[in-house]
Structure formats: C-alpha cells, structure tokens
Amino acid sequence: MRPYAYTRARSVRDAVRGTGPGTAFLAGGTTLVDLMKLEVMTPDRVVDIDRLPLRGITLDRTGLHVGALERMSDVAAAPVVREQYPMVAQALELSASAQLRNMASIGGNLLQRTRCGYFRDVSTPCNKREPGSGCSALDGVNRGHAILGTSDDCIATHPSDLAVPLVALSTLVHLASARGSRTVPLDAFYTLPGSTPDVENVLRTDELITGITVPRSPWAARSVYVKVRDRQSYEFALTSAAVALELRGRTITTARVAAGGVGTRPWRLTGVERALTGRPATPATFEAAVTGAADGARTREHNAFKPALLRRTLVRALTELQESR
Ligand code: SF4
Q1: Test site for ligand 1: of 128, 139, 147, 192, most ligand atoms within 8 A of the Cβ
Q2: What mean pLDDT do residues 280-295 have?
Q3: Contact 23, 63 (CB under 8 A)
Q4: What's the pLDDT score for residue 315?
Q5: To bridge 193 with a disulfide, which of 118, 197, 230, 248 should be the other Cys (CB 3.0-4.6 Å)?
Q6: Domain at 223-323: CATH architecture
Q7: From the CA atom positions of the chain, what is the Rg in Å?
Q8: pLDDT of amino acid 214
C-alpha cells in the first residue's frame, strides 16, 4: 500500500472541504482498503467519514430515508424495510458475507467497484483502472461479465445487489459538496462505460453521498429479489431480478422490474414492465413479457448463457411473487 495522508472529518462540511482528485472517503472500508492494498486505488488523501451523523432509517409519507453510513446488516434487519420494501432487505441479505454486511455502508455499497478480475490485477491491461491500456476481459475470462450496456472498451458488470431493487423503485441519491447539495435519481447516477469506463457515475470528485430516499409506493411492499450465482453464499450474481407488482384482482396494474449481473450498471427493464402491465398475472404472461428482456445483449465467449438465464430468473421472480400472495 502506498503512503497517504489520513484525516478524520468532524462534519459533512469538514469532510468535503478541500476534496478533489486524489481524495478518497473512508466509511466501512470494505472496498477501498482492499483496493488500496492491491494498489488499484492510490489516493493521496483519505478522509475518514465514518463518525459523521449520516445515519437513520425512517419512513414518512414520501418514502424510506436511509443515511449513507447505515450498515447493510442494520438496514436489512430494520422492520420497516422488511415489511414495506422486502426486495431491498432480500438484496442486502444476499450480498457479500455477514461480516462484510456488518461493516459495509449503504453509500459505499452503491459506489463499490467492479469484481472484474483484471481490474484488480495491476499486471494486466484494464481501461477502467488505467485508461487507454486495453480491456483484458474482451478475449479473456468473461463468464461473469456484462451483456447489456457494454462497449468495446469495457464489459465489467456492476456488482451491487442493493442497487438493483433501488433502481426498480426510482430511488433518489442525496449528494453534498462544499458548493451545496443536490439529489440525483439512482438510475441517472450510474453512467455507461462508453470510451471512459474509469468514469462510473455522475458523482463529482468533491461530492459525498449523504443518503438515499426510496419513494413510497403500493407496489414496493409486494416485491421480491432473486439472485442466481455459482454458490449459495458470498458470491456475486450471474443474474438477478428485482420485481415489484401492484395487482387489481388478477390484473397487473403496475410493474417495476430491474436486473443485476447482466449490465454495466443496474439495469431497469421498462420493456418488461410495459409487457406485464394490464395483463393477468399468469405463467403465460410472465413468459411472454420477458421475451425481450435481453434485447440488445452482446455476449462474449464465456457468458453466452446469460440472456436465457436472465429470462428464467425474471420468470422465477415473477412466479415467486405471484405464489406468495
Ligand atoms: Fe477493465 Fe472493464 Fe475490461 Fe474488466 S471489463 S478488464 S474492468 S476494462
């Protein structure tokens, strides 16, 4: 690990003062410390924000408000999350390991870096780590890589489980800097890799995530998160599906659907949502609605199974949700 200057912030204003390129914020440390040890991330200055008062899990008429420094395990265990936003609690509980969930913050989870092995191996070319060096995954080991939103410069999958249901539920991300605060929809927060895969979101170098708001909705309480992976614990998604439905009788009046493990960012499936809306909640509807879920997918040598697996994951999530009513 390279030397760096360490400071502990006493307030949000203190944390964002003088920040910019070369500054990293430290909360739970479950991503940053790993990447600093590997010298994938080499900040000159680390600002410890872990004692800032960015906590709280509250529900009001506008939605669920979660402080950026709340721990994943605490949010997953909160009764209001389990009852009103079950797919959020499920996505958290299916993430990482119990030890990591006890340490990792909600803000850090949304900013975690890709698990592409080449990104973490500084001896290999990687455009995300070192712009212009090339992409080792294009013709390398790419079984876990993305099929949607990829570019000729990067095919890395977005790793967060939590971000998938949050995108489906139109979550807002609250940001602060020395210039003030702003709010960005999570769906617009993440950027596609294009020719600049080192840029992963619209967060400016002097900004800090302070919290999120998940809007209140009748469909959030009837929701499920399904994750398919190579082993049942401590593994990233090959595919995942976050599905929320509102029904009147047997008719689907609102559908929210997003996928993980397949996109370079959490992938909202508005075409599937439209295909479900106004239809009866039946196996035939589910099968028909997911037909185009992977339209536009670009597969590589080892991940050609993902379009079919995505469709099956979506049908399983829809079926589980229907059968749980
Ligand atoms: Fe790097 Fe992206 Fe290619 Fe992985 S897929 S090697 S992160 S450029």
Answers
A1: 128
A2: 98
A3: no
A4: 98
A5: 197
A6: 2-Layer Sandwich (3.30)
A7: 19
A8: 98
